[in-house]
Design goal:
Largest sheet: 6 strands, antiparallel
Low-confidence stretches: 1-14
Shape: elongated
Number of strands: 20
Distance between the termini: 43 Å
Radius of gyration: 34 Å
CATH architecture of the largest domain: 4-Layer Sandwich
Mean pLDDT: 91
Number of domains: 2
Number of helices: 13
Helix content: 25-40%
Length: 410
Amino acid sequence: MQPALAQFRHPGHSAGPRSAGDLAQEVPAIDATDTNSLVMEIFYSRRDMVSLAVVEGDRPIGLINRDIFLSQMSKPFHRELYDKKSCIAFMDKEPLIVDAGMSIEALTFKTVEVGEKALVDGFIVTREGRFAGVGNGLRLLGTVAEMQAEKNHQIMQSIEYASVIQQAMLRASRDTLSTMLSDAALVWEPRDVVGGDFYHFAAFADGWFGAVADCTGHGVPGAFMTLLASASLSQALEQIGPRDPSALLAAVNRNVKGLLGQINGAGNAPQSNDGLDAAFFWFNAERQQLVFAGARVALHVLRPDAEGFESVAGDRMGVGYVDSLADHAWTAHTVEVPRGSLMFVSTDGLTDQPGGPRKIAFGKRRVLELILSHRDKAVPGIRENLLHALGEWQGAQSRRDDVTFFLTRV
């Protein structure tokens, strides 16, 4: 086991109750032949008892609820009428009786099945059919709440460690980006602990390759998709190389559709209609050219002498998904980018974030105008202005999606 993994261990079961027997209180029981006056004595001497079990020999046959019993016996002449009669007069003849080995989960379902009285009166616990004690409905609820909290804690620990793995997967690209571009910014903000967006950057002797992608969903499902899509891209880069983004999109599309069983005629109907939107781009350093291919993600370029951005739309065909063509060829666009040009790519989590006075989307136009107004600043400064504007726009609204964008001066 690697040291990083050794630091992460799910907590073992706590010492709390894990079966019905753990909830059984060792309290007195009363024989079916005993009188109601004895029941009265027991309830007055044990004010902690909600219910009293009635047994024949050592096998339980009923349960007497304290409040109901005392209410009945307080009526006029009831003491005179019932004191010397058998205690079964006020006994529930169909209480919930469970074995001590029954799990808390099974006991919970059984309690729900029986209804409210099992929570109010409690339940009888037996061992090999013999009376072992009485369980309290409120304590059962408390135990269920504790167990759920423990499970939630374990799940959150797992997700938090998954975030460590996902960030480790992206670290090499981020390190590469910091060394190959002197004026660049990359923002990756998952809506949840883990996210469905990913990026990939790689440097070569004659240029660099970049990818920004938005997989189906966010949180844990989205994170699973990023692992699948990122691995598909890495495999395609090894086989095809970085200079043909269109071919890379096609290769990732075929691989994702194959892995998710989305190829027509491949056995049963696909259960997963998942995929990704993406922008792949190759920068030719010698020619100062960008070769771009997009699947429902656009490229935006601001040249030093231009008054506004040139936007190049991606194809309206996603990567993967049941309805995407397995043999689709994405359009390759060659864009001239003179030195000092800004290029910008973003997933829709940025532009679709609702907010503002009318609770509408942040919008592509607002994003590009903000970058344009700060074009003379270093890119990290533009990034901070953009994030600040997004935060102001979002206000009290919750984050809608993962936010990822890439901005650089080439």
